[in-house]
Structures are given as C-alpha cells and as structure tokens.
Amino acid sequence: MVKIMKRTVFPFTAIVGQEKIKKALILNAINPSIGGVLIKGDRGTGKTTAVRALADLLPEIEIVENSPFNADENSYKEFELYKANDKKLTDEIKLVKTPMNVVELPLGATEDRVVGSLDIEKALHMGIKALEPGLLAQANNNILYIDEINLLDDNLVDILLDAAAYGVNIIEREGISISHPSKFILIGTMNPEEGELRGQLSDRIGLEIEVEGILDVEDRILIMQRREEFEKDPIAFNKKFEKEVKKLQNRIIKARNILENIEINTVFLEIIARITLELGAEGHRSDIAILKTAKTIASFNEHMEVQNNDLEEAVFLVLGDDNLLFQRIQKIKREIEKREEDLKKSKLESIEESLQESLQDKLGEINQKLDINLNNEKEEIQDEDKSNDEHLDLSDSISKKTSFVDDSDFKAKDDLESKINEGKQLENFNEIETEERKFDIKKSS
C-alpha cells in the first residue's frame, strides 16, 4: 500500500526560522526542474516538518482520471493509451484537478514496492495493465520524500538515479519490459553523522542545504508554544495561519506563471561559469542548477530579469553558504566590472576619435563652402563697382552735354517769364476797363 502523507500537517508559514530550508522547498515548488533538495542537519531541527508542510503550498495539477500512474494528458497518451488493447486514440480523455502530494519512501521498502510488481502472465496479454503501481508511479507529478536518504540501499539508489535522469520508471521481469512516467521532485533529508550520501545521487539533487538548531531563546520559546498549540487543536491552529499560507501559495503560482519569461544577462552567466570552474566542477550540472535557481528566485521576487541578490542567493543554495565563496563572487564581480569599465573607456575613446575625424571633415567642408561664398561675394562687389563706375562716366557725359547753357541764358529765360506775367496783368486790366465802360453807357441811357 502506497503511503501518501496527508493533512493535517503543521502549517508551512508557522515554522519558526530555518529560512534556507523553506526557501529551497518553495523554489522547487515553483520550478521542479531545479532537481529537488537535499537537507542536511541533526535530528530535531525541523527538516521533516518543513517537507511535510510543503504539501499545503503545492498547486493543483491536472491529471487523467483514474490513471494508475498519476499521468497528465501527454504522458497518458504516450505510456497508457497507445499501449492499451481496449483503448483507441479517439477515446475521450477526462481530466481532473487534484492537489500535489508528498509521497514518502521508507528505508525498508522493497524493490517491488518502489518500482511496482508485474504479473508475467497478464503482461503477455494486457501489457501495462498487468503492472501493479509502486511508489514511483504514485510519485509521478508529485514530491518523493526520503528521510535518511543516505541510508537507502544501493539498488534503490540506482533505481532512483535512473528515474530521476529520464523521468521514466522501467520494470523488467523475465524478458518483459514495461515503463511508465515518473517525474517527481526528490527531497531527501539526512544526518551527516550517520554516513554520507552516494556522490551520484547527490549530483542529481539540485539544492543542498545544511541546517542547524535555532539558538535564539525567544525563537525557541515560540517553537514550543506553537507546537503545543498545534497538538492541542490542529484544525484551529491551521485556521490561524490559513491566510498566510494562501498568500504564499498565490505567490508561488504567480512565480510559476512568469518563470519562462525571466531574463539573465551574459555577465551573470560568466560569473556562474567562473565560480564553478574555480571550485573544480568538471560537469555542467552545477552551472545549470545555479542558472535555474537564479531565474526561479527572480520570479519569486517578481523580477523580470535576474538581479545581483537573486544570483548570489542561488549560488549559496547550490554550492553552499560560506565566506570564502562570497569572497570569490565579489572578486569575480570586481574583475568583470573592471573589464567592462576598460571596455567602456576604450569604446568612448574610439567614439571620441571618430567624432574628431568627423568634425574635422565637417569643418573642412564648411571652410570650403565659406571660401566659395566669399569668392562669389567678391565677384559681386567687383561687378557692382564696375557698374558704379559706368554710372559715373554717364553722369560726366551728361554734364558735358549741358555745359553750353550759361548764366545769360538763364537770365533771358527769367526776363521772358516776367514779360509773360506782365502781359497777363495787362490783359486783366483791359478786361476791367471794358467792363467799366459798359457800365457807364448803361447808366447814361
């Protein structure tokens, strides 16, 4: 029987402290492709409580109704519908929404319980329907949680590695092979004092968090009070934090919706590559994990482009949080900033030289145009001077032609005009005299 952890669990937002654990779990809820979380720490530090509380934050998923493998529409068509003898591609597929769950894999689990059992006789006639689903089927599109993962049997570790790498669980019995989808978020907790985790499995997990007990007295008091209140009335306690949980859940959904649109500049990509190389990473898993985590943090912070603080937090979550790593990040940043500054300075100098050349060419063109305009103006002035000289010559000619008229001529003209005036006066006098005579004759008669 598959064990699925259900409510009522301690509310996620009621957990005191342990911010790194909570952040790592939230980021995987937003972006499962990060690859899960490995939480290292002593017993009693809240590791398991945080993982189980994550269930309330998980958004609903859409799966095919009655699918034994918790399959979505695409994987159902690929693994079930195509292979079932009594199904046709035209059959209607009914989808239902269901909450994501945390599926727990116990240490004592057998291989059949993990991968599923297969009835050979039925498999020959019924194909995939002959498979009795195991934990990996139930974990598909959910979270697979393994407490004390470092103590897991090697053969189960190999099975987990294959499923995590390909997203498929393959069951092989007596020459018969059946597969089904198994894409899950792997979360493991462990106490390092009890043994190390196999390197291959550790490499498959995206984030690795080390936790310690809370040392602040007030926080420890609050932990005791909340735990006691929860145990007395779990439903009432969950109700108390319901709004906070819902708010965080909505924030996760919003981050999921914008995740694919998040951008990251090439400078940050260089920082990631240089840090992983300095730490001796030969493969690319750590680079990709940092990149995915940085973008996911940016989406959670509602940044459409990865910021400095998003990148630094991602590096610490993937590679560990220590002062030496922080110093390396700052050193690389300073080197890149200096290089960018030198490049910027070089570009500015190049632009300045180009502008100077362009300015000189422009000034040459302007001077050439000015010389042409000045020459044209000189020619116009010379033409005007020449025209003025011609006018002066004409005036002299006229003066010469009229020089024969002397003062006596003007005096004769004046005398003539005087005589004409006198004649007019005499004429007027005669007219008056004639009128007087007419009056006298009329009077005498």
Automatic annotation (TrEMBL):
Gene3D superfamilies to which the protein is assigned, alphabetical: Magnesium chelatase subunit I, C-Terminal domain (1.10.8.80), P-loop containing nucleotide triphosphate hydrolases (3.40.50.300)
Domain AAA+ ATPase as annotated: residue spans: 33-215
EC number: 6.6.1.1
Name this protein carries in UniProt: Magnesium-chelatase 38 kDa subunit
Stored InterPro entries: AAA+_ATPase, CHLI-like, ChlI/MoxR_AAA_lid, Mg_chelatse_chII-like_cat_dom, P-loop_NTPase
Any single Pfam family the record assigns to this protein: Mg_chelatase
Organism: Methanobrevibacter cuticularis
Protein keywords: ATP-binding, Coiled coil, Ligase, Nucleotide-binding
Family that this chain belongs to: Belongs to the Mg-chelatase subunits D/I family.
GO molecular function per UniProt: ATP binding; magnesium chelatase activity
Underlying gene: bchI_1
